[in-house]
Amino acid sequence: MARRGEDRVLTVPNALSVIRLGFIPLFLWLLFGRENRYAAAGLLAVLCASDFVDGYVARHFNQVSNLGKVLDPVADRILLGVGGVAIIVDGSIPAWVGILGLTRELVVGVAGIVLALLGARRIDVLLVGKAGNFLLMLAFPLFLASNPDGGASWHAVARPLAWLCALPGLVLSYYAAYRYVPLAKDALAKGGQRGGG
Length: 197
Known about the structure:
By secondary structure, the protein is mostly helical. It has one domain (12-190): Four Helix Bundle (Hemerythrin (Met), subunit A) (Up-down Bundle), CATH 1.20.120. The chain is built from seven helices and no strands. It has helices at 12-22, 24-33, 37-60, 66-90, 95-117, 127-145, 155-194. Helix 1 (12-22) packs parallel to helix 4 (66-90), helix 3 (37-60) packs antiparallel against helix 4 and helix 6 packs antiparallel against helix 7 (155-194). It is globular, with a radius of gyration of 18 Å. The two termini are 21 Å apart. The mean pLDDT is 85.
């Protein structure tokens, strides 16, 4: 049973998630329309950071909501997906890094939808998965800023920082995906029992 107030829709964290999604077209315009990689990297970094702001606000100001539990990870995946594909197309990130990051997000996202359709109970996000996402969200704008044509004076420093975030981010993300397998089986079994089958 939901705790009182979790059915709310109008909360600050939910508004931040919607704003995050709303700024994705501006990111694409800066990157491809204006070809301003530095500005696009800055905006992407701010959008990624806002994910942790809305999580903090939700937990510390009692604004956790059922909508937010769905909207926040969906916004994260859309932001990572669009940002990752855009940076691969731009050529600022090694394709294999972007593809590995996006493949994991796609598999976990599709698995979540399938589980929900099968009646499984919702699985809480693992801390290790959040850590992996956080590092990848740092890595993507850093790879973009590391492009010498991007205009960032610190592009040579951004490259090693991007690798320092990307490699452990990928490892943690895939480890979290592995950890989700038994949780998914358990959620499916308990969902089936609750549904009478």
